[in-house]
Amino acid sequence: MRLLPALPLLAAIGLMGGIMLLYTPDKPRSVLEAEYAQPPSEFLPVAGFRMHVRDTGPRTAPVVILLHGLGSSLHTWEPWAQALSLHMRVIRFDLPGFGLTGPDPTGDYSDARAMTVLAALMDSLSIPHASLIGNSLGGKLAWQFAAAYPQRVDKLVLISPDGFASPGFEYGRQAEVPTLARLLPYTMPTWMLRMNLAPAYGDQSRLTDDVVARYRDMMLAPGVRRALLARTAQVRLEPPEPLLKQIKAPTLLLWGERDALIPISNAQDYLKAIPNCRLISFPELGHVPQEEAPARSLVPVAQFLSGEGS
Q1: pLDDT tens digit string along 187-215?
Q2: Is 41 left (phi over 0), alpha (psi -120 to 50) or beta?
Q3: C-alpha–C-alpha distance, residues 184 and 177, integer Å
Q4: 236 — phi, psi (to 5°)?
Q5: Contact indicator for 118, 141 with CB cutoff of 8 Å
Q6: Burial of 10 (0-12, 13-18, 19+ CB in 10 A)
Q7: Each residue of 265-297: pLDDT tens digit?
Q8: Cα dist. 52→73, 259, 284 in Å?
Q9: DSSP character for 263?
Q10: Which of 41, 144, 178, 238 has an alpha carbon 20 to 30 Å from 270's alpha carbon atom?
C-alpha cells in the first residue's frame, strides 16, 4: 500500500524519460552546409538576411525562378534545375524559414513579406522579370506575386498550388497550431516525418530513405522548426479569386491526381479564376511530381516555357 503514492511520480519520471529519448536537437549549420550547400550553392544578402541560393544556366538566357513547398528546400528541384539550366537561367532558393536560409530575423512569415523578399532577390540579381514555377506553398506565393507584379512575371507554372479553403483552413480565420505540433522543436522521429511525407507521394517507392533523410536534415537546420510553427500561426486565408483574376501571365497548372494534400478538384477553381490557364494532370502521381517523375513531369513545363504548343 505504501507504493501507491509513488505511482504518479513514477509515471512522470517515465514520461520525462520518454521525451528525453525522443529529443531531437537542431543539427549544426556547419555540418548541414558541408553536405547540402556545395557549389553551385551560394549565400546572398537579401532583404536583411542570408539566403541560400543556386543560380545556374546561361546568364543571358530567359530566367525561371523555382519556389518550393512547405517544409521543403531548393533541393526538391534538382533534376528539373539541371535540365532547364541547359537553355535557361534557373534560380532556386530556400524560402525564409526553411532549409539553409533559416529563420527570417523579422519573424514575419506573411505572404506580403514573401512578396517583398522575392522582389528583393530579383533586384539583387538584376532580374527585371522572369517566369515563376511554384509547388504547394511556393505555388501560392508564385500566383500572388504574378497578381501583385504582373510586369515582372513572364509565365507561371503552378504545381498543386495552395490558396483555396479546405476543412480546418477556412477563410478569414487565423490558423491554430495544434497542441501536438508545438512539440516539433523538441522532437522529430524519422518514422513520424515519413508518415507526414507519405500523403505527398502517389508512388510510395519514390519516398526513399535518402529523400526522408534530406527532408529531415532540412527540418533540423537551426531555427527551422520554430520558424515553421511561427509561419503556421500567421496563416490567414482570404478568398483568392480577386487576385487570381488579376494574373496576366500565361499559366500552366500541373497536378498529380493522387495528391492527398491538395486535391486535384481544386484545379477547377484555378481554371475558372485565372484568365489564361490550362491544366496538365498525372493520374499516378501525387503532390510533388518534380520529385516522383522528374523527367516525365518536366516535359509539358519545358514545352510551355519555350512556347511550344501554346
Answers
A1: 999 999 999 999 999 999 999 999 999 99
A2: beta
A3: 11
A4: -145, 105
A5: yes
A6: exposed
A7: 999 999 999 999 999 999 999 999 999 999 999
A8: 10, 28, 32
A9: -
A10: 178
